Amino acid sequence: MSQLILASASPRRKELLRQVGLDFTSIPSRIEEGIRGGEDFRHYPERISLEKALSVAEGLPQPKGCWVIAADTVVLIDSEILGKPRGPEEARSMLERLSGREHLVITGFSVVDARSKDFTQRSVESWVKLKRLVSEEIEGYLKTREPFDKAGGYAVQGIGSFMVERINGSYTNVVGLPICELIQVLREIRAIDLFERYLS
Q1: Which end of the chain is more exposed for a tag (fewer CB within 10 A), N or C?
Q2: With 80 as the cut, is the pLDDT of residue 38 above it?
């Protein structure tokens, strides 16, 4: 099996890869994230994921046989990206805005051959509907501090699951790494044999 590098320190993305039995090393990227003027919000996650992957690939001392995986997830409502809230006020505002409404979650991911820098990209979209939240629920959730490092101000795989009424599309995409689509790409480029360990 080729060596896999996850260009992220995200515990959620690491756990998703572990769940399907992949061996990998985590090396977080250090790029600056930010949407460019006039940039299509659907293209933004793919661009950021590629920049993350390339930044890690270029720093590997022995890149031969390595594939670097990176992803970026955005939450959109009314064609506006909701990033990670910078504090309670911003988190409260996001949750009030999402309350009772559907919003779009897009994850762009890139897989880069660390030696050649050839890459493959995909984007996956899911629609998420939150229940109508009362102020006591929002304030209680803010006290957990879970919203403060999550795009859109909530974690579908955490305490925030109490507010998710339905998901139309990939659940793992909403968590931050669309596993079905990622595994398909890794198999297509012959980076993995998913069941190799079970056949030896």
Answers
A1: C
A2: no
- What the chain holds in terms of domains, given with CATH numbers, is 3-199 (3.90.950.10)
Residue 33 has pLDDT above 80, yes or no: no
Distance between CA 137 and CA 35 in Å, rounded? 31
Which of the following is catalytic: 23, 72, 113, 118? 72
Quick check: is 193 catalytic? no
pTM summary value: 0.91
Q: How far is CA 143 from the centre of its chain?
A: 24
What is the DSSP track for the chain? Answer: --EEEE----HHHHHHHHHTT---EE----PPP-PPTT--TTTHHHHHHHHHHHHHHTT-SS-TTEEEEEEEEEEEETTEEE---SSHHHHHHHHHHHTTSEEEEEEEEEEEETTT--EEEEEEEEEEEEPPPPHHHHHHHHHHTGGGGSGGG--TTSGGGGGEEEEES-HHHHHT--HHHHHHHHHHTTS--TTHHHH-
The two three-digit tokens of residue 90, written as one number: 């911003």
